[in-house]
Amino acid sequence: MNPARLSRRALLATAAAAMLPARAAVERFPGHAVRLIVPYSTGIGPDVVARALADELAAPWRQPVVVDNKPGASGIVAFSELRRTPPDGHTLFLADTATLAVNPLLHASLPYDPVQDIAPLSLLFRATFVLWTARSSRWGRLDTLLDAARREPGRLSYASLGNGHASQVAIESFARAAGIRLLHVPFKDNGALLAALAAGEVDLYACSVNTAAGLYAGGRLRPLAVAARARLGANPEIPTLTEAGGPAVEMHPWAGIVTVAGTPAPRLARLQQDLRTALAAPRLRARAAEAGFEITPSAPDELRARAEADRALYAPLLADGRVVRL
User: Fold this and answer.
1) Edge-to-edge strands of the sheet including 294-295?
2) What is the pLDDT of residues 182-199, one digit of tens each?
3) Are 321 and 140 contacting, i.e. CB atoms less than 8 angstroms apart?
4) With contact defined as beta carbons under 8 Å apart, do 132 and 221 qualify?
5) Which end of the chain is more exposed for a tag (fewer CB within 10 A), N or C?
6) Quick check: 242 and 227 in contact, CB under 8 A?
7) Residues of the chain with pLDDT under 70
8) How far is CA 314 from the centre of its chain?
9) Cα dihedral across residues 249, 304, 161, 313: positive or negative
10) What is the pLDDT of residue 190?
11) Using omega within 30 degrees of 0 as the cis cutoff, is the peptide bond preceding 253 cis?
C-alpha cells in the first residue's frame, strides 16, 4: 500500500475522531438542567405560562427546566442575571415589552444592551388589555369619559404599576391617540391598585380580563372597551375601542424567549426547534388561555422586529412628557 495514501487516511481518521466529542456534545444538548429566568413574581400570569413551557421542554430534553423568578426594576434585575451566564444555551430568559422596548427609552443608561446581549429565539405570548372603571363610576361609557377628559384635562385619573410599566404605557398611548391628558396615579401592588379602582378612587386602568376577573364577576368593575381590532371570543360583551367611541389603539403586552448572545448556532437551532414544538402543545396553550394569554410562536427575527417597532411606537410618549425618562 502506498505510504502517502496510508498517511493521509490516518490523518483523516484522526481529524474525524477529534470532531466526535464536539458533535456528541451538541447532540446531547442540553447536558444538564436548564434555567428559565422570569422577571415576575411566582404565581402571576407570565410565571404561570413560563412554568407550563418549562414542563413541555423538560420532557423531551430529559433534563429539569428550573423557573428562576427574579422580579424587580422592570426586568433589569433579571436581565442582569442573564448577562452573567455562559453562552451555552442552558439559560433562557422571558423577555417582555418592558425589558426589550420600554426600558431602553426610559433609562439614560442600562446595565444591559437589549440588542447586543441576547440571541432571540421566539415570541411566547401576548395579552390583550381592557380599559376598566368602577361599576359605581359615573363613566358608564367610554365616550362620556373621553368627553369629560377633554373638558377638564388632567382631572380624570388612571392607575398603573409605575412609570414605564405596560399598564402606564398602554393608557398613555390611548390618551395620546384620543387627544386627552389624564392624571397618573402609580401603585406598587396590583391588589391595592384594583381595590382602589373598584372603590372609585381612580377612574381608569388597563389590564387583561384575567387580571380583573374576580372583581368583574363580583360586579365591582365595569369594562369600557377592549383595545384590539376585534372583540374577545371569551368576552364578546365588551366592545372594541373604536366601537365604544375611542381611537383605534391596540394594547397587546407581549413576551418572548431569548438566550445569551454568543450561543453556538447549532444550539440556537435546537432551542428554536424545541420551542416551536413546545408552543404547539395543547396543554400549554390551554394553560396560557386560562391565564389570559395567547401563545404566539415566531421566528427569531420577528421577536427582534417586534421590540424595535414598540420602541418606535412608545418614543413619542417620552417626547411629550407622558412617560418620564429616568
Assistant:
1) 65-69, 34-38, 91-96, 254-260, 118-126, 294-295
2) 999 999 888 999 999 999
3) no
4) yes
5) N
6) no
7) 1-27
8) 15
9) negative
10) 87
11) no
**Which residues neighbour 248 within 8 Å (Cβ) at sequence distance 6 or greater?**
177, 241, 242
How many Å apart are CA 129 and CA 92, to the nearest integer? 26
Instruction: Give yes or no for a contact between 99 and 166, defined as CB atoms under 8 angstroms apart.
Output: no
Grid cell in block for residue 209: 380580563
pLDDT of residue 22: 45
Look-up: residue for cell 369619559?
145
Residue 75 falls in which region: left (phi positive, over 0), alpha (psi -120 to 50) or beta = left
State the amino acid at position 19 in one-letter form: M
Distance of alpha carbon 112 from the chain centroid: 17
Instruction: List the alpha helices (DSSP H) in the chain.
Output: 3-27, 45-61, 76-83, 97, 103-106, 142-151, 166-178, 190-198, 209-217, 265-279, 282-290, 300-319
| Spatial distance between the Cα atoms of 247 and 243, rounded to a whole number of angstroms | 9
Cα-to-chain-centroid distance, residue 157: 26
CA-to-CA distance for 283 and 298, rounded, in angstroms? 19
Q: How far apart are CA 150 and CA 141, in angstroms?
A: 15
The C-alpha cell of 142 is what? 367610554
For residue range 24-44, list pLDDT tens digits in order. Answer: 444 589 999 999 999 998 988
- For 126, the grid coordinates are 401576548
